[in-house]
Every structure is written in C-alpha cells, then in structure tokens.
Amino acid sequence: MADVRNGENGLNQEALNNLPNWAKLGWGLGKQPTRGPKGELSVPKIVDAAIAIADKDGLAAVSMNKVASSLGFTTMSLYRYISSKDDLLMLMQDAVSAMDIPPEREGVDWREEMREYVRACVEVFRKHPWFGDISITSVPIMPNTLQIIDWVLRPLRRFPLNDYEKVAILLLISSYARTCGIIMRDLDRAIQAGATPESFSGLNYTTALKELVKPDRYPYLYPVVASGSYTGENVEDNTVGDDFDFGLERILDGVEQFLAGKN
Q1: What pLDDT was estimated at residue 247?
Q2: Which residues contact 66 (CB under 8 A, 6 or more apart)?
Q3: Which of 34, 63, 189, 225 is deepest in the core (most CB within 10 A)?
C-alpha cells in the first residue's frame, strides 16, 4: 500500500484518519474553522471554559450551550471548533493531565519516581473531581496522557524487562492511582457535603457494627470488627500506617520481587 503523506506536516495521513476526532483535535490536527472572528475562539479557550464549569458544578453541568454562554458566543460557534460534547470531554480530560513532570535526578531510585507519579495522579482526581467520571474508552492516545506514560516508563528502562512487561507494570500502578484517586475524591466530596472523616471511615458506626456483626454469619470479619481495626478504633494497634502508602509500598515490593527474578 502506498505511503500517503500530508504535504504540510509529513505525517501519514491515511494512518491519522483512523484516529477519533477528539484525538485529532488534541494533537492539533483538526481543521481550523474558516468562518467567524479570528482569535476570539479556539479549542484551548473552549476547553478551559468547560473545565472551569466542571470544577465548579460537576461534569453534568457541562454542555455546549453553557460553555458557549460562558464565553459570550453562540453554541453554533463552538461547533465550528469542537463537533460534539464527547470530543470536548476527552479534550478536558487530557488538558488536566498536563503535569509538571520532575526532571530525572541522580540518586533518586525507581520506587521514589513511582511514588511521585502515583501522588501526582491522585491529585488530578482531587483537584478536578469530575475527572474520574469520564469513562475509559481506549488505550491512552492523547499527547498529555502519553507524556505521563513516558514519565513512568523512564525508570523502568534500567531493568531487563520487555515492552509488554513495562506496560503491565504501568497498568498495575496506574490502576492503583486511579482507585485511590477516586476514593480520596469521594472523601473530599463527602466532607464538603457535611460528613465527617469519622463517618466516612466508619468510626461513628463502630458500636453498631459490633452489635450487628456476629461470628456465626461473619466468622472471619467478626474478630476484625470486635478489635476495632475495621473502623480504625484502636489506632495505637495500627502497625501499617497510612492505608494509601501501605498499599503502594506492597505493590512496589511485588514489582521489586519480580525484577529480582529477572536478574
């Protein structure tokens, strides 16, 4: 098959045509509108306005009409730049994924780099609570998201891993970041709505649970509830520390053990 090239940017146009429209827009490959006032609207301006609405009122509040109104334009004006709300959501997701990636530093081991990555991801979920409400529909293909993936792969280059193993480790650690990010986001939302950290953790329900959880029905859960560990009642008995850090360190331990077996 002939290698069809775009004369302007030298890219394989046939291959690019397989990209969804939102990906083309994210990479700056979409056609720019020829009508309307120049410079007054742009894809980044529209995306920023949509993010501001979502940050304030949630993802459900985002509509092409509302974004257009916030910018002082008609809805049809927006459609000249972004053809659908679905495209807009994907552009919003990638826009808030732009992170200040730390430079490579001598003496910083791979585990610390992974910790930095996971914490940075969790902060995206907390800063933009709507982020986790957008469904995952494909492998990441947007520029900012791929930049993050490139960051995670950086420390893994030192190890005798094939590319599939690197991607599998990336997926494992990213899944943990996403899960913790959504949980912490939900905690933030609950507290903002008037809940207390104690009610979220279940501490307020400790006494009731001790009455309800009986050993005949819950033989293995019963001693955990009875000890107070289930709801964090006896913090002095906690040898684990922070749940988030504990889980992350155990994942990194597993990766380290896997790497040791490759040597």
Answers
A1: 94
A2: 53
A3: 225
